[in-house]
Design goal:
Helix content is 32%, strand content 24%. The strands form 5 sheets. Strands 1, 2, 5, 6, 15, 16, 17, 18 and 19 form a 9-stranded mixed sheet that branches. It starts with a helix and ends in a 7-residue tail after the last strand.
Amino acid sequence: MSSTPRHGRHVSQRTFLWRRLGVLGALLLTIILVGIGVSNLFDSSSTSSQSTSTTSTPPHATTTKATNPVTMTFVGDTALGNTPNLPANASSYFSDVQSALSAPIEFGNLEGTLTDAGGSKCGTSSSNCYAFHNPPAYAQIFKSAGFNVLNSANNHSHDFGAQGVSDTTAALGGAAISQGGLPGQIAYATDGKTKVAFVNFAPYSSTNNLLDTAAAKVLITQAKTQAQVVVVYMHAGAEGSSASHVTGQEESYVGEDRGNAKVFAHTAIDDGADLVVASGPHVLRGMEWYQGHLINYSLANFAGYQNFSTSGSMSLTAILRVELASNGSFVSGHFTSLLLNSVGQPAIDSTNQAATFVNALSTQDFGAAAALIKPDGSITPPPAAP
């Protein structure tokens, strides 16, 4: 009888030990399985999150906007005299406005040609015809001022025929200035890692034709496949001090159809343009927000030497500075008011007459969609830009 209890105690202790080991093993197995499940849960959640992010992130992410912006300045019609009537100080003609003009990308409308060719479009007896040409060497003056994109979509690019066009293209190419606006021609420039396409239009078949909206859409679409940012320039509208308003109607001048600037600008943005700028009326026009994008309807005459009238409102001009994100969205803008002297040379205007003039036009022409210039020159979209 004495052995039974001892045996029973050994059995009980052994059973207790195995049971304890079994409980510990089960507990360990449970911990392992739970750990695996949690890990899989987090992996699945991470994968799902990554998948969702990849699917929903737009082609140009927010980080791209922050790291690769593009800064550009824009000016209007520019011609440094008309051979042989040229300024004595041509090489320093932009010195008074150089600091405001300076940017990684500088764009201007070349109102004329760079050629020594004779035989202009104007007949010898014509009293109301203007043909402009500067020496081809003037391309280096533009280059020294920082211009790297010049437009030829205007009514003066063919003033000296095919030879004038050819000489201008050669001169700009020799100065490493990108030319845009001739039929099918798109200009390109870069700021850091961001490539910008400039698709320029005027109401003529000898240029990219703004009257042919189907062809314009093809060019804008093509530009979007070649560059992250697309800027459209238009040489549109009637001319003169009485042409400062955007009418929203088809405009004409000297019997020419000069297009409907508002309809064309809106259509260009609908087709993919990120910014629209303009000149051609030889007077400033207002600015508008459309679908979150800025439209400038005329930057007037930037510089001349007895080329253009400088009376009244036609002495007002400006430099428009715009920064866009690499996905084309608006980041910031600035408007620098300038005054032209009697011969057409620009200088900074500390009284900001041009900004005051443009704000009045913008408010009258576009109401709540007006793009307004603040006292410090900045341009910012309204909280909910139309």
